[in-house]
Amino acid sequence: MPVSTLTAGALAGCRVIDLSRVLGGPYCTQLLADHGADVIKIEPPAGDETRGWGPPFLGDTASYFVGVNRGKRGMVLDLSAPAGQELLRRLLADADVLVENFKPGTLEKWGLGYDTLSQEFPRLVHCRVSGFGADGPLGGLPGYDACAQAMCGLMSVNGDADGPATRVGLPVVDMVTGLNAAVAVLLALNERARSGLGQFLDITLYDCAISLLHPHASNYFFSGKVPARTGNAHPNIAPYETLPTRTGPIFLAVGNNRQFAALAQALQAPQLAGDARFASNADRLLHRQALRSELSALLAGHDAPRLAEQLLRQGVPAAAVQTVEDVLNHPHTRHRDMVWEDGDYRGVGSPVKLSRTPASLRRPPPALGEHDAEIRGAR
Predict the structure, then answer these.
(1) Region annotation Disordered: residue ranges (predicted)?
(2) Residues 133, 139: contact at Cβ < 8 Å?
(3) CA dist., res. 366 & res. 43, Å (int)
(4) Domain that holds residue 159
(5) What tens digit of pLDDT does each residue of 335-372 get?
(6) CA proximity to 246, closest of 305, 288, 160
(7) pLDDT value of residue 8
């Protein structure tokens, strides 16, 4: 999607001041920018530290930064200095949203905390992304994705049953925190349309990590048993795991008896569906190892991608395990407009599809301070 295909976007006319760095906050504001918000990314003089998180680099900017900062105008401000604080206030005068992820207490120290800003700008929606919030036993402590995965139980249920607790291979807590922050911003803007008032949004990595614990938290609440690692196998469903084929692993996610019968038919083994050991999901869970052995033998001669597509077309959830390269080059990825390109820029497209006001690539990620003169000159 080249920049020339711009649409107004669902958030046209909404101005967002983005003081956030690294991932959670920038991921939130990129989503808002994709949908038309005018996002002004304000960086300290040294820049967002992720500009240096490479290689790989695009020019002198790391791919990590490029991946979550498109669509924004960029400027540099030293908020520890009175001149920087004054200019921020000028920017906030006609802004709708402020997103920041300073350690709690930092903005307050500069006279820019919510209590102060809400008096000056009562319509401002102030979204803070932090590790643990400002108060409570862990209040004010810094938060990091991997630490949240470890602390909040995600690692304890991720990995092979006989292996160590394992970090999810992407910053899932930071990203879901960014998504929750974006949802919170939209909720607050919707409410402001009625009340005329902004509010403070308190979004933490800790809370968002805990919110991801389904079904493990529900299982624990009902059974009292501490959830354990099961590798790729689901704790509540069978068969729901990776199994070997001739050309690599396939993931089967069979959620009901109809799907199981269709799987057995596709594998030319209808007797499986009639086997008392596999009559219901509860039976299949009880005899999981026997079922795995039966299926592994039946799958041994199959091509994973071909079989997975055949099963999907027959209503059986299945997928070959693909690499990042595989999925980014898949024809359906292109069909879904999930790779955006313009000049040197390539990035993952927006998953939020609106029929009349679709997301657009409005501008590539800014160079450090790229729009300083433009933004200052407008005021």
Answers:
(1) 350-379
(2) yes
(3) 11
(4) 15-212+340-378
(5) 999 999 999 999 999 999 999 999 999 999 999 999 99
(6) 305
(7) 87
Residues 150 and 264 in one domain: no
Which CATH number does the domain housing residue 157 bear?
Answer: 3.40.50.10540
Question: Amino acid identity, residue 262?
Answer: A
Q: How many CB atoms are located within 10 Å of the residue 290 CB?
A: 13
Q: How many domains does the chain have?
A: 2
Residues 257 and 317 in one domain: yes
| Alpha carbon of residue 136 to chain centroid | 26
Regarding whether 97 and 35 lie in a shared domain, the answer is: yes
Quick one: tokens of 262? 């269709």
In sequence order, the 6+-apart residues with CB closer than 8 A to the CB of 324 are none
- Residues annotated as catalytic are 174
Same domain as 120, residue 22: yes
pLDDT in tens, 174-187: 999 999 999 999 99
What is this structure's pTM? 0.92
Q: How many CA atoms lie within 13 A of 165 on its CB side?
A: 13
pLDDT at 174: 98
Torsion angles phi and psi, residue 128, rounded to 5: -110, 125
Is the omega angle on the peptide bond into residue 56 within 30 degrees of 0, that is, cis? yes
Calculated CA dihedral for residues 117, 121, 123, 128, nearest 10 degrees: -20
* DSSP secondary structure, 185-207, as one string: HHHHHHHHHHHS---EEEEEHHH
Check residue 4 and give its pLDDT: 44
